[in-house]
Write a structure and sequence with these properties.
The chain has seven helices and four strands; from the N terminus they run βααβαβααβαα. The protein is of the alpha/beta class and about 170 residues long.
Protein backbone atom coordinates (compact mmCIF):
# COMPACT_ATOMS: atom_id res chain seq x y z
CA UNK A 1 0.00 0.00 0.00
CA UNK A 2 1.09 3.53 -0.74
CA UNK A 3 0.83 5.91 2.21
CA UNK A 4 0.87 9.70 2.45
CA UNK A 5 1.74 11.32 5.77
CA UNK A 6 0.52 14.62 7.19
CA UNK A 7 2.11 16.42 10.14
CA UNK A 8 1.29 19.73 11.83
CA UNK A 9 2.25 21.74 14.86
CA UNK A 10 1.28 25.08 16.21
CA UNK A 11 4.21 26.96 17.71
CA UNK A 12 2.73 26.77 21.21
CA UNK A 13 2.11 23.02 21.03
CA UNK A 14 5.54 22.32 19.62
CA UNK A 15 7.14 24.04 22.60
CA UNK A 16 4.83 22.61 25.27
CA UNK A 17 4.10 19.04 24.19
CA UNK A 18 7.27 18.13 22.33
CA UNK A 19 5.32 16.59 19.45
CA UNK A 20 7.66 18.16 16.91
CA UNK A 21 7.34 17.74 13.16
CA UNK A 22 10.39 15.47 13.16
CA UNK A 23 8.91 13.34 15.94
CA UNK A 24 5.58 12.99 14.14
CA UNK A 25 7.30 12.14 10.87
CA UNK A 26 9.46 9.48 12.54
CA UNK A 27 6.41 7.88 14.17
CA UNK A 28 4.47 7.86 10.89
CA UNK A 29 7.46 6.36 9.09
CA UNK A 30 7.88 3.65 11.75
CA UNK A 31 4.14 2.88 11.67
CA UNK A 32 4.13 2.55 7.88
CA UNK A 33 7.15 0.24 8.05
CA UNK A 34 5.40 -1.90 10.68
CA UNK A 35 2.40 -2.23 8.34
CA UNK A 36 4.65 -2.90 5.34
CA UNK A 37 3.32 0.25 3.66
CA UNK A 38 5.38 2.45 1.34
CA UNK A 39 5.48 6.02 2.68
CA UNK A 40 5.59 8.08 -0.51
CA UNK A 41 5.46 11.63 0.81
CA UNK A 42 4.85 13.61 3.99
CA UNK A 43 3.11 16.97 3.89
CA UNK A 44 3.53 19.41 6.77
CA UNK A 45 2.28 22.63 8.29
CA UNK A 46 4.37 24.41 10.91
CA UNK A 47 2.85 27.03 13.17
CA UNK A 48 -0.64 26.53 11.74
CA UNK A 49 -3.93 26.25 13.55
CA UNK A 50 -5.81 22.98 13.19
CA UNK A 51 -8.98 25.04 12.75
CA UNK A 52 -7.76 26.51 9.44
CA UNK A 53 -8.56 24.44 6.33
CA UNK A 54 -6.51 26.81 4.16
CA UNK A 55 -3.16 25.51 5.42
CA UNK A 56 -0.51 25.24 2.72
CA UNK A 57 0.54 21.66 3.53
CA UNK A 58 -3.05 20.43 3.73
CA UNK A 59 -3.88 22.07 0.41
CA UNK A 60 -0.79 20.43 -1.13
CA UNK A 61 -1.86 17.04 0.23
CA UNK A 62 -5.34 17.38 -1.26
CA UNK A 63 -3.92 18.55 -4.60
CA UNK A 64 -1.53 15.61 -4.59
CA UNK A 65 -4.42 13.19 -4.07
CA UNK A 66 -6.17 14.72 -7.11
CA UNK A 67 -3.25 13.73 -9.35
CA UNK A 68 -1.38 10.82 -7.75
CA UNK A 69 -2.76 7.69 -6.17
CA UNK A 70 -2.34 6.80 -2.54
CA UNK A 71 -4.11 4.11 -0.55
CA UNK A 72 -4.04 5.72 2.89
CA UNK A 73 -3.38 9.05 4.63
CA UNK A 74 -1.53 8.61 7.93
CA UNK A 75 -1.33 11.12 10.80
CA UNK A 76 0.30 10.92 14.23
CA UNK A 77 -2.96 11.94 15.87
CA UNK A 78 -6.33 12.96 14.41
CA UNK A 79 -6.12 16.51 15.77
CA UNK A 80 -3.00 17.05 13.66
CA UNK A 81 -5.25 16.90 10.58
CA UNK A 82 -7.96 19.16 11.97
CA UNK A 83 -9.45 20.43 15.21
CA UNK A 84 -12.96 20.86 13.79
CA UNK A 85 -15.32 17.90 13.73
CA UNK A 86 -17.12 19.04 10.57
CA UNK A 87 -13.76 19.45 8.79
CA UNK A 88 -12.77 15.94 9.84
CA UNK A 89 -15.91 14.46 8.26
CA UNK A 90 -15.55 16.70 5.23
CA UNK A 91 -12.00 15.45 4.65
CA UNK A 92 -12.89 11.84 5.37
CA UNK A 93 -16.04 11.64 3.26
CA UNK A 94 -15.51 14.23 0.52
CA UNK A 95 -11.79 13.81 -0.05
CA UNK A 96 -10.55 10.41 1.16
CA UNK A 97 -13.50 8.00 0.86
CA UNK A 98 -14.58 9.50 -2.46
CA UNK A 99 -11.20 8.50 -3.87
CA UNK A 100 -11.05 5.15 -2.08
CA UNK A 101 -8.31 6.36 0.27
CA UNK A 102 -8.15 5.16 3.86
CA UNK A 103 -7.34 7.30 6.90
CA UNK A 104 -5.18 6.08 9.80
CA UNK A 105 -3.87 7.55 13.03
CA UNK A 106 -0.67 6.18 14.52
CA UNK A 107 -1.89 6.69 18.11
CA UNK A 108 -5.67 6.16 17.87
CA UNK A 109 -7.33 2.85 17.00
CA UNK A 110 -10.27 3.27 14.65
CA UNK A 111 -11.49 1.56 11.49
CA UNK A 112 -13.46 3.88 9.22
CA UNK A 113 -14.79 0.94 7.21
CA UNK A 114 -17.24 0.17 10.05
CA UNK A 115 -20.04 2.21 11.58
CA UNK A 116 -18.44 1.88 15.04
CA UNK A 117 -15.09 3.00 13.66
CA UNK A 118 -16.63 6.08 12.07
CA UNK A 119 -18.47 6.81 15.31
CA UNK A 120 -15.24 6.54 17.29
CA UNK A 121 -13.50 8.86 14.84
CA UNK A 122 -16.39 11.31 15.25
CA UNK A 123 -15.85 11.29 19.01
CA UNK A 124 -12.15 11.99 18.50
CA UNK A 125 -13.20 14.95 16.34
CA UNK A 126 -15.49 16.25 19.09
CA UNK A 127 -12.68 16.10 21.66
CA UNK A 128 -10.13 17.64 19.29
CA UNK A 129 -12.49 20.56 18.72
CA UNK A 130 -13.19 20.85 22.46
CA UNK A 131 -9.46 20.96 23.22
CA UNK A 132 -8.89 23.64 20.59
CA UNK A 133 -11.79 25.71 21.88
CA UNK A 134 -10.51 25.43 25.47
CA UNK A 135 -7.03 26.58 24.39
CA UNK A 136 -8.59 29.56 22.61
CA UNK A 137 -10.74 30.40 25.63
CA UNK A 138 -7.77 30.31 28.04
CA UNK A 139 -5.67 32.47 25.73
CA UNK A 140 -8.42 35.08 25.42
CA UNK A 141 -8.90 35.12 29.20
CA UNK A 142 -5.17 35.56 29.81
CA UNK A 143 -4.95 38.43 27.30
CA UNK A 144 -8.04 40.10 28.77
CA UNK A 145 -6.50 39.89 32.26
CA UNK A 146 -3.18 41.35 31.08
CA UNK A 147 -5.07 44.27 29.53
CA UNK A 148 -7.01 44.83 32.77
CA UNK A 149 -3.68 45.05 34.62
CA UNK A 150 -2.32 47.45 31.98
CA UNK A 151 0.40 44.93 31.08
CA UNK A 152 1.89 44.93 27.63
CA UNK A 153 0.27 42.48 25.20
CA UNK A 154 2.09 41.29 22.10
CA UNK A 155 5.64 41.69 20.91
CA UNK A 156 7.93 44.14 22.67
CA UNK A 157 8.07 47.56 20.99
CA UNK A 158 11.03 48.18 18.70
CA UNK A 159 14.15 48.94 20.74
CA UNK A 160 12.53 48.00 24.06
CA UNK A 161 14.83 45.04 24.73
CA UNK A 162 18.00 47.07 24.06
CA UNK A 163 16.84 49.82 26.38
CA UNK A 164 16.03 47.30 29.10
CA UNK A 165 19.48 45.67 28.77
CA UNK A 166 21.21 49.07 28.99
CA UNK A 167 19.23 49.99 32.10
CA UNK A 168 20.08 46.63 33.68
CA UNK A 169 23.82 47.13 32.93
CA UNK A 170 23.73 50.63 34.40
CA UNK A 171 22.09 49.30 37.58
CA UNK A 172 24.51 46.41 37.99
CA UNK A 173 27.58 48.62 37.41
CA UNK A 174 26.52 51.16 40.03
Amino acid sequence: MKAIGYIRVSTEEQAKEGISLDNQKAKIKAYCESQDWQLIKVFSDEGSSGKDMGRKGLKELLSYLEVDHADVVVVHKTDRLTRKQRHLYQLLEDEFERRGIGFKSVTEPFDTTTAMGKGFLGMLGVFAQLEGDLISERTKDALRRKKELDEHVGAAPLGFLRLRIRLWKLRTMS
